[in-house]
Amino acid sequence: MHCPFCHYPDSRVTDSRTNEDGTATRRRRACPRCGRRFSTVETMTLLVVKRCGVTEPFSRDKVIAGVRRACQGRPVGEASLALLGHRVEEAVRAIGRTEVPAHEVGLAVLRPLRELDEVAYLRFASVYRSFASLADFEDEIRRLRAEQAGPALPAAAAALASAPAQVPPRHAS
Ligand SMILES: [Zn+2]
Prior knowledge:
Blueprint: E1 12-18, E2 24-30, E3 37-43, E4 47-49, E5 55-57, H1 60-70, H2 78-94, E6 99-101, H3 102-116, H4 118-128, H5 134-149, H6 153-161
Parallel strand pairs: 4-6
Antiparallel strand pairs: 1-2, 2-3, 4-5
Residues 3, 5-6, 8, 31, 33-34, 36 line the site of zinc ion.
């Protein structure tokens, strides 16, 4: 790393620390020629490979913009979208590769979006999975209903209401 002050082509690392979630390393550096100090931040580049083969840096904003389109007219606030973007980025980074196919990003969107809003989920899935007919929608809705009937229902319902986890128990009497 060149010194930004005198452009000496080398620098000495005096301190190095990783941020809390381990996604970036900050280094304090000193120039051996002019003695001035500066910092650098090192982050892992996460690239998304599009279907046409072009790569672009992963963008949480882009993910959120796509989901926001699917949420038009739905009771989904910006805070929920931001949280979803965070979850998607975590899931994509957890794949542990520096290049991730675009369809894996789409997959990472589906699960949290379904918990957030089922209508928005169906819209997003219809584009992402290229639903071609009404039958595709019907199949997906049948799958959703089947899963709702299972033990996953309370968690999904709680997430849909986006209410605090503490729900007072209802008594029959
Ligand atoms: Zn220097």
